[in-house]
Design brief:
- There is one protein chain.
- This protein is of the alpha+beta class.
- The chain has 3 domains: 111 residues, Beta-Lactamase (2-Layer Sandwich), CATH 3.30.450; 85 residues, Helix Hairpins, CATH 1.10.287; 169 residues, Histidine kinase-like ATPase, C-terminal domain (Heat Shock Protein 90).
- The protein is built from 12 helices and 12 strands.
- A 5-stranded antiparallel sheet has the order 2-1-5-4-3. It has a 5-stranded mixed sheet with strand order 7-9-10-12-11. A two-stranded antiparallel ribbon has the order 6-8.
- Helix 7 packs antiparallel against helix 8, helix 8 crosses helix 12 and helix 10 runs antiparallel to helix 12.
- The structure holds adenosine-5'-triphosphate and magnesium ion.
- The site of magnesium ion has 4 residues, from helix 10.
């Protein structure tokens, strides 16, 4: 009995020792854990700072980050994403992505998102064009990554958007300008090649018409036919000259020009067409003015463009009035002088420049108010076969002569184009 009692005491003692040992072990492990936690908290850069470290990182990066769940509901939307899309976080969180951006549904983005969710692989969309709610076009490069749990389950997608608008649009603009330049050069080469044969057609038609006019045996309708060939050939030449001037911006070579003579030669070319259309031509030239300084070929082209436009505005007849008058002198200041008042204050005499105004008035259809700002822009035309180069080229030529070209028009009553040129020192 006494032996059993001793055995029980020994067992109890051993149990007590084992419990003490285990308690010590637990305490030791606790100490280890606390030390590890203290150490890792020391490595955290957010140590001691208020707020959420991960959130700060997300809001500070300069790429747009959006997180969507598997049904494309927006779960996270960083500040940069809001600035690219102009959609605030408050407005989009919890909503379906394609409810916020319905216009992107047909863009293939939905398909890519679905693919990322199904395959668990990252996809990239290089230049994705969008429009924000202010109708501004912006371009992003997107990386779409699967959002995965540690066990690999895909729970959604992360869309990372880089704003590449400036890079892409600038590149497109450069390519467009380059293409236009190439087309311009090509058009100029073709125009140059066509110019000579058309010149020959026009010259022969004129020569034949003149000799037939002198011959009473020749029929009048044949002569009229030849004149029509000559006029149409001249019109083609004019289009070609417009293209050539437009593509080269030729410098004006100024010589004394007989203005009435130049205008007469232009009006002579359209005389027959005017007659056929029932348009009469009236001329009022100031007799005190004949010579101006200018490039005769270029000025001829300006007047031809204005005359043809006037005729085209009067398909059912009317009156084309061409006026030349001296303009009151315009005081010119030195280029570095801000105003003519200052010029006078300093006792420097103003230079007076003589100007001449050449007016083409028609009684045609007139120009609607909303077109007045556009008619001098290249390629603006309301005519079926118009190139829209006539007025733009004319304006360039007049500007090269230090002159101006203006228009007054009333729909249904007609238009007046006025070219003002400095007379220059002859
Ligand atoms: N006298 C006019 N009366 C009414 N509209 C005019 C007149 N002159 C010009 N316009 C308007 O201005 C536009 C531009 O004229 P512009 O001469 O530059 O080109 P276009 O006559 O259309 O073509 P192109 O001269 O190259 O054959 C015309 O299409 C027309 O709408
Ligand atoms: Mg024209």
């Amino acid at each position: 009995m006494a032996e059993i009692y001793v055995l029980l005491v020994v067992i109890s003692f051993a149990c007590i020792l084992a419990v003490i040992y285990l308690l010590r072990k637990v305490e030791y492990l606790n100490r280890q854990v606390r030390a590890y936690q203290a150490e890792s908290s020391h490595d955290d850069p957010s140590d001691g700072l208020p707020g959420n470290y991960n959130e700060d990182v997300l809001e500070s990066v300069t790429v747009g980050i959006a997180v969507l769940d598997r049904s494309f509901r927006i779960r996270s939307w960083n500040r940069f994403m809001a600035s690219i899309t102009q959609e605030t976080k408050e407005n989009v969180i919890g909503r379906l992505y394609f409810d916020v951006f319905p216009e992107q549904l047909g863009s293939g983005l939905a398909h890519t998102l679905q693919e990322v969710i199904e395959t668990g692989e990252t996809r990239e969309i290089r230049n994705f064009k969008h429009q924000d709610k202010n109708k501004r076009t912006y371009v992003t490069r997107k990386k779409i990554c699967p959002l995965k749990r540690l066990d690999g389950t895909v729970t959604g997608v992360i869309i990372i958007s880089e704003d590449v608008t400036d890079k892409v649009l600038l590149g497109e603009e450069l390519r467009r300008v380059e293409k236009l330049r190439a087309v311009g050069e090509f058009a100029a080469r073709i125009a140059h090649e066509i110019n000579n044969p058309i010149g020959v057609i026009s010259a022969y038609a004129e020569h034949l018409a003149e000799s037939m006019e002198r011959n009473p045996a020749c029929s009048r309708s044949h002569v009229q036919g030849l004149r029509a060939i000559q006029e149409e050939a001249e019109r083609c030449s004019n289009i070609i000259r417009n293209i050539l001037v437009f593509s080269r911006e030729a410098e004006a070579r100024l010589v004394p020009v007989d203005l009435p003579g130049l205008l007469d030669s232009v009006l002579f070319l359209i005389e027959k067409s005017a007659e056929n259309q029932g348009v009469s031509i009236e001329k009022h030239y100031d007799s005190s003015l004949s010579m101006v300084l200018g490039d005769p070929e270029q000025l001829r082209q300006v007047f031809f463009n204005l005359a043809i436009n006037a005729l085209q505005a009067m398909p059912d007849g009317g009156v084309l009035t061409v006026r030349v008058r001296r303009e009151p002198p315009v005081a010119l200041c030195a280029a570095d002088t801000p105003s003519s008042d200052q010029f006078r204050d300093r006792g420097i005499p103003e230079r007076e420049e003589q100007h001449v105004a050449i007016e083409f008035s028609d009684t045609g259809c007139g120009i609607p108010e909303q077109h007045l700002n556009d008619i001098f822009k290249p390629f603006f035309s309301t005519k079926a076969g118009g190139t829209g180069l006539g007025l733009s080229v004319s304006e360039g030529i007049v500007r090269n002569h230090s002159g101006t070209i203006t228009v007054k028009s009333e729909v249904g009553r007609g238009s007046t184009f006025t070219v003002r040129l400095p007379v220059g020192e002859l």
